[in-house]
Write a structure and sequence with these properties.
The chain is of the alpha+beta class and 506 residues long. It folds into 4 domains: 67-153, Beta Barrel (Thrombin, subunit H), CATH 2.40.10.10; 164-271, Trypsin-like serine proteases (Thrombin, subunit H); 278-382, PDZ domain (Pdz3 Domain); 412-504, Pdz3 Domain (Roll). It contains 11 helices and 28 strands. The chain has helices at 2-47, 67-79, 117-120, 258-271, 288-293, 313-316, 336-344, 376-379, 419-424, 443-446, 466-474; strands at 83-89, 99-108, 112-116, 125-129, 135-137, 139-144, 149-153, 164-165, 176-181, 189-200, 212-215, 227-229, 234-243, 252-257, 277-278, 281-284, 302-307, 324-328, 331-332, 351-358, 361-368, 370-371, 412-415, 433-438, 454-458, 461-462, 481-489, 496-504. The strands form 5 sheets. It has a 7-stranded antiparallel β-sheet. The chain has a 6-stranded antiparallel β-barrel with strand order 9-10-11-14-13-12. The radius of gyration is 39 Å and the shape is elongated.
Length: 506
């Protein structure tokens, strides 16, 4: 029995050893297989040995856009259906016509569209294309060259998508905005930027009424007339022009504020034109000398160089050359553009209370405002001065390294004319010192005073006789501020106009 039992135990031990060996061999095989697969995968990934597996695949990783990007997309989707592409021709025969393009924004479901006046001003034929591809013939309802705004209309077969108008006055510098339009004909293009500045005046002297939102959202030819939109999806501006030296976007884009666009739009669809009140004067910047002589703390305000004529509203209310306007209806005016806009916004026929300084004394004038008769009533306000003080006669003189020696005298030769002599020179009714000659290197010559000028005031004191002239000029001392009022012959007519010259004595 013992021998059998001993044999049985040996058998059990050998069987167990074989099972352990098989298990170890299986584990080793599985490990080797796993390592081989991993190595093969790495070799495939980094070495690209398999020529048939070089295809690309699109990632399906979920994307979570940031909040700003998502908002841009929402605004674009909301506003784009109301943005149109405008194509115009300046001739009925397209074979000989010049073609132009621009953008516009639908603001009324019946087919009223706002765009820029320069987009449609020469249009004989006009085609309006919507986002969905539908095309319509357009017609101009009204246009205003002074703000560069126009209203056009199409006749849709159903109600159109409409853009919501926002309040440009609530914009802040730094706010995000989107510009939508058709730059270079690429329809429904969206660009983004921030509000770089407000109340920006383009230094092109096109109109006294243009004042812009500046943005760095890219605007290019073809964007004109399209909307500038805030992140609420509201139109806060009409893209109008860019500042560039290359004819393409250079980082500065300008849009008409929606507050101005709404006012012009409402007048155009109601009257077909914009009615504006005017004063009838030629305003210029206040110089430091004029400010000091009038006892002003700064140069804010508007200096009246002259009234447009004796029957202008300003002239009839007693305003004259040399006056400094500081407020209208208790609203301060800082510069001539503000003055023009404030006056233009007043009802025609209303009386404006104009506060002004004359010779250091505050005065008031009640001006009954009239409707501006033509564009020249405003455009005149933007003309260059009648002379360049550095070269009043417009002469091209040879350059010299030697600086002219300034004589410490005014350098004017005055004469007091008889009635007959005054009539011969177109000076009927004007009392003052006729300046027969001016020494070029004198104080007068260096400050733009010219021979044939008629000097009528020095520092708001009248010059009616040689005694007045001598007394007032002899009283001038070094570092004194001087403001002179003269009458000058216009280059294009025998008429004389008021000119204000200011300087400081050496």
């Amino acid at each position: 029995m013992f021998d059998k039992a001993e044999t049985f135990t040996d058998h059990q031990e050998k069987a167990a050893s074989r099972r352990q060996l098989r298990l170890v061999l299986i584990l080793v095989a599985v490990s080797c297989l796993s390592i081989g697969v991993a190595v093969g995968s790495l070799v495939h990934t980094f070495a690209g040995e398999t020529p048939n597996d070089n295809r690309l695949s699109i990632s399906t990783t979920p994307i979570t856009p940031d909040a700003l990007s998502a908002r841009f997309a929402q605004v674009a989707a909301q506003v784009e259906p109301a943005v149109v592409h405008i194509k115009v021709w300046d001739n009925d025969n397209r074979a000989f016509a010049r073609e132009g393009t621009g953008s516009g924004v639908i603001v009324n479901a019946q087919g009223y569209i706002i765009t820029n006046q320069h987009v449609v001003e020469r249009a004989v034929k006009m085609k309006i294309k919507l986002m969905d591809g539908a095309e319509y013939q357009g017609k101009v309802i009204g246009q205003d060259a002074e703000t560069d705004l126009a209203v056009i209309k199409i006749e849709p077969t159903s109600a159109l998508p409409v853009a919501k108008i926002g309040d440009s006055e609530r914009l802040n510098v730094g706010d995000w905005v989107l510009a939508i339009g058709s730059p270079f004909g690429f329809e429904q293009t969206v660009t983004a930027g921030i509000v770089s500045a407000k109340d920006r005046v383009a230094d092109n002297k096109q109109s006294a009424f243009q004042q812009f939102i500046q943005t760095d959202a890219a605007i290019n030819p073809g964007n004109s007339g399209g909307p500038l939109v805030n992140l609420a999806g509201e139109v806060v501006g009409i893209n109008t022009q860019i500042y560039t030296k290359t004819s393409v976007f250079s980082g500065i884009s300008l849009a008409m504020p929606s507050a101005m666009a709404v006012d012009v739009y409402n007048q155009l669809i109601t009257n077909g034109r914009v009615r504006r009140a005017f004063l009838g004067l030629k305003p210029i910047d206040v110089t430091p000398q004029v400010a000091r002589v009038n006892k002003l703390s700064d140069t804010k305000g508007v200096l009246v160089e002259r009234t447009t004529d004796d029957n202008s509203p300003a002239a009839k209310a007693g305003l004259t050359g040399g006056d400094v306007i500081v407020s209208v209806n208790n609203q301060k005016v800082r510069n001539f553009r503000e003055l023009i806009r404030v006056i233009a916004a007043q009802p025609i026929g209303s009386v404006a209370n104009v506060a002004y300084m004359r010779g250091g004394k505050m005065q008031n004038a009640a001006v009954r405002l009239e409707e501006r008769r033509n564009i020249n009533d405003a455009q005149e306000l933007l003309q260059q001065p009648l002379f360049d003080p550095r070269n009043p006669r417009g002469l091209v003189e040879p350059k010299s390294t030697e600086k002219p020696r300034i004589k410490f005298s005014l350098g004017m030769t005055p004469k007091f004319l008889t009635g007959e002599m005054a009539a011969q020179r177109g000076l009927d009714g004007i009392r003052g010192a006729y300046l027969a000659s001016i020494e070029p290197a004198s104080i007068a010559g260096m400050n733009g005073i010219m021979a044939d000028d008629m000097l009528v005031e020095i520092n708001y004191q009248p010059v009616r006789s040689m005694e007045d002239y001598t007394r007032l000029t002899n009283a001038l001392k070094s570092r004194d501020d001087v403001v002179m009022k003269l009458y000058r012959r216009e280059t294009t007519s025998p008429n004389r106009v008021s000119v204000i010259v200011s300087f400081t004595m050496p």
